[in-house]
């Protein structure tokens, strides 16, 4: 059982993560690759990334055995939720944190030889690990990242509405099917007995695409308190690529494609035109329509206009 102890200050400071956390999704997706949990939900994705995963997950698997403890430092806590910032934080993990986490891991299993360089904080070993994570993300998660973000955003929007209309305690009582809220303690089913005292720091609620079954958190209670928990899924989320027919029918082929490429990553009008193989005036016109519909935002970026997708746009893409 996991027991999380709140104070009034903690309730006021509890928040919902603004977006999926890439490093957590990396870690939890590795578990989904090696296990059979989730059945039909993840099976097509497993098959589609199997070959790439085979050559990119070895270092990650060494630090996150299929059962039991996974090192805390693989999922650094950040307010800026980008993969690049997560990788940079991983490269700069303090030696004390590396040694402490690996000592805990060594109590559960025999560590491979390469982790000795990690325990010593060698920059080249940390870089090797970060590069491995980056290759894994590019091969196994990046092709689906828009859909992953969209589904998480749908759940996040639902929970933000619940918190706004009914309060934080109402949300905590429903954050997971096993949640039991009795102020000042939130209890959840958990693989081991663990207690987390927030002590005024608040709690970051992080809905996760690849979390399955029970929620998870850091072992070290001194790290920023974070509760990662699963969202609901739909079978077939990973099948096919590109924009689905319903979205194309709603927006039109060109406009749907413009929304998709902006969802993949923000871009200037020129970049959007290039990536969608349309003219600059067409890209500008389609972006303006999407902006008026609240699906993207646009802001001046030097001499260019930078377009970014909104949560509503992500949620629409997730439905395809």
From TrEMBL:
InterPro entries: ArsR-like_HTH, HTH_ArsR_DNA-bd_dom, Metal_resp_trans_reg, WH-like_DNA-bd_sf, WH_DNA-bd_sf. Residues 245-319 form the HTH arsR-type domain. It comes from the Bacteria. Keywords: DNA-binding, Transcription, Transcription regulation. This is Transcriptional regulator. It holds the Pfam family HTH_20. SMART domains: HTH_ARSR. The keyword Transcription applies.
């Amino acid at each position: 059982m996991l027991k999380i102890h709140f104070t009034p200050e903690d309730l006021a400071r509890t928040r919902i993560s603004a977006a999926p956390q890439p490093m957590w999704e990396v870690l939890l997706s590795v578990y989904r690759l090696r296990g059979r949990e989730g059945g039909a939900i993840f099976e097509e994705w497993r098959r589609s990334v199997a070959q790439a995963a085979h050559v990119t997950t070895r270092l990650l698997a060494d630090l996150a055995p299929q059962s039991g403890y996974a090192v805390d430092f693989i999922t650094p806590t950040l307010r800026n939720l980008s993969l690049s910032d997560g990788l940079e934080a991983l490269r700069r993990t303090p030696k004390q944190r590396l040694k402490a986490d690996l000592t805990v891991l060594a109590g559960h299993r025999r560590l491979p030889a390469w982790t000795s360089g990690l325990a010593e904080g060698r920059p080249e070993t940390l870089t090797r690990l970060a590069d491995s994570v980056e290759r894994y993300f590019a091969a196994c998660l990046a092709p689906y990242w828009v859909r992953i973000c969209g589904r998480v955003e749908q759940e996040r929007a639902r929970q933000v509405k619940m918190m706004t209309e009914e309060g934080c305690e109402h949300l905590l009582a429903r954050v997971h099917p096993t949640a039991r809220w009795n102020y000042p303690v939130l209890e959840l089913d958990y693989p081991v007995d663990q207690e987390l005292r927030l002590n005024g720091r608040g709690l970051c609620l992080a809905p996760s695409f690849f979390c399955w079954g029970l929620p998870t958190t850091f072992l070290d209670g001194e790290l920023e308190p974070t509760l990662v928990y699963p969202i609901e899924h739909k079978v077939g989320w990973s099948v096919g690529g590109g924009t689905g027919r319903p979205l194309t029918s709603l927006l039109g082929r060109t406009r749907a494609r413009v929304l998709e490429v902006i969802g993949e990553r923000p871009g200037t009008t020129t970049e959007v035109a290039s990536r969608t193989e349309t003219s600059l005036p067409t890209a500008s016109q389609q972006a303006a329509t999407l902006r008026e519909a609240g699906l993207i935002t646009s802001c001046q970026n030097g001499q260019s206009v930078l377009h970014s997708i909104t949560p509503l746009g992500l949620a629409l893409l997730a439905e395809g």
